[in-house]
Amino acid sequence: MPWYWWLLLAAFSALVGFQFGLNRAPIWTWVWLIGTFVVGGWVLVWMSRTTITVEADPDGSRWLIVDQASLPATVVDRSMVVPESAKRNALGRQLDPAAFVMSKGWIKELALIVLDDPEDPTPYWLISSKNPEALLEAYAPSTVAAHNS
């Protein structure tokens, strides 16, 4: 979550607090200010709670786990980093409606994982990551495209 979103929340909370505190006892200003900041803070934390992990089974197979979704590395055909310059196109008109997308607007890059699983209609996964190169190397290093720029 960008730090300046917290500043915007503080400004919004102050605006709401002072607006609802007009012509009332001063305690109401503080009640609305603190209440708005707490609720808004909870929303910001909830929006940024996504966890991405790479786990390995005892047999050595790797799994990518994004919140409740999981993907074995055995079904990955190829993978690559989607740079910031191509993010808009990847999430725009070219996006397949059947794709699995976990995108956060404030994260600049995506990891693209193309699947080769005849039993799964999902063609690919698009996942926001602060370090997509490390994510793909940890998950399925043999599938990473040679040119990631």
TrEMBL record:
Chain segments annotated as transmembrane: 27-47
Keywords for this protein: Membrane, Transmembrane, Transmembrane helix
InterPro entries: DUF3093 (IPR021443)
Protein name: Hypothetical membrane protein
Organism: Corynebacterium pilosum
Origin organism lineage: Bacteria, Bacillati, Actinomycetota, Actinomycetes, Mycobacteriales
